[in-house]
Amino acid sequence: IRCPVKECDEEILHGKYGQHLSSHKEMKDRELYSHINKGGRPRQHLLSLTRRAQKHRLRELKRQVKAFAEKEEGGDIKAVCMTLFLLALRAKNEHRQADELEAIMQGRGSGLHPAVCLAIRVNTFLSCSQYHKMYRTVKAVTGRQIFQPLHALRAAEKALLPGYHPFEWKPPLKNVSTNTEVGIIDGLSGLPLSIDDYPVDTIAKRFRYDAALVCALKDMEEEILEGMKAKNLDDYLNGPFTVVVKESCDGMGDVSEKHGSGPAVPEKAVRFSFTVMNIAIACGNESKRIFEEIKPNSELCCKPLCLMLA
């Protein structure tokens, strides 16, 4: 074969052609010449072939991949091929396509989880209608449901509220209802009023303390398990666990001012909440701390106990 590179014109044996071509470092398009077809019609591109022809052309490679998969990956050919495909995509900087493929492989689909959408809606201060508008626009433009609809967000929100997780105290607590439901009550019910108190009407959503604590601990399940793993403890231990809680209450300002128009009414919103400060577990004679709140003053780790309008 005569070398097609300018100012070379050397004649090379067919078997040594690839080796000769690699000596031309300055050639950027040398791939164009590296594939030689010994007569016959030019080879069609792999992706344009029928499935049968693709199988025929790749049979040797498939055999090698199968041998590798059986030796290294317990016979999982799909995982090997998928990983090769992902690496090929990422090598060409096609990261978006690679991310989508990875999501499908892991059974996640390319959409976001409802809890992630809820976090986005809350952290970007979008109202329900604003979020719904964004959801519809993205779905119409991309043709894919990346954000989840509002009803999925509401379902995710319920899982974060006390009363969602059924639980049982062992031994049972005295004088505490076994019902975990949450209701709307008078926020001051049960508080003794003195004559000097300012007459105040309240409406509140008040959660049972034990239901709220169970919900908070369920929410922190991953952190607790990670903490136990870090201390080389088993996933399941009888305990006892010691949970240190800080209670707090803050006024949320004058509600009437937040709306702007209308007469000023002396409405105050108050939130009673608690923060799980740390969790320790008894191991023999010593106590090992498996969780500690890094930002105990952040409102992000406040768990609600009572939300009240006064």
TrEMBL record:
Residues 39-106 form the NBD domain. It is found in: Nucleus. Residues 1-28 form the RAG1-type domain. One of its GO terms (biological process) is B cell differentiation. Residues 39-106 bind DNA. Its cofactor is Mg(2+); Mn(2+). One of its GO terms (cellular component) is nucleus. It catalyses: S-ubiquitinyl-[E2 ubiquitin-conjugating enzyme]-L-cysteine + [acceptor protein]-L-lysine = [E2 ubiquitin-conjugating enzyme]-L-cysteine + N(6)-ubiquitinyl-[acceptor protein]-L-lysine. The keyword Hydrolase applies. One of its GO terms (molecular function) is sequence-specific DNA binding. Its EC number is 2.3.2.27, 3.1.-.-. Keywords: Chromatin regulator, DNA recombination, DNA-binding, Endonuclease, Hydrolase, Metal-binding, Multifunctional enzyme, Nuclease, Nucleus, Transferase, Ubl conjugation pathway, Zinc, Zinc-finger. Binds 1 divalent metal cation per subunit. Mg(2+) or Mn(2+). Belongs to the RAG1 family. Homodimer. The NBD (nonamer binding) DNA-binding domain mediates the specific binding to the nonamer RSS motif by forming a tightly interwoven homodimer that binds and synapses 2 nonamer elements, with each NBD making contact with both DNA molecules. Each RSS is composed of well-conserved heptamer (consensus 5'-CACAGTG-3') and nonamer (consensus 5'-ACAAAAACC-3') sequences separated by a spacer of either 12 bp or 23 bp. Catalytic component of the RAG complex, a multiprotein complex that mediates the DNA cleavage phase during V(D)J recombination. V(D)J recombination assembles a diverse repertoire of immunoglobulin and T-cell receptor genes in developing B and T-lymphocytes through rearrangement of different V (variable), in some cases D (diversity), and J (joining) gene segments. In the RAG complex, RAG1 mediates the DNA-binding to the conserved recombination signal sequences (RSS) and catalyzes the DNA cleavage activities by introducing a double-strand break between the RSS and the adjacent coding segment. This is V(D)J recombination-activating protein 1. It comes from Burhinus bistriatus.
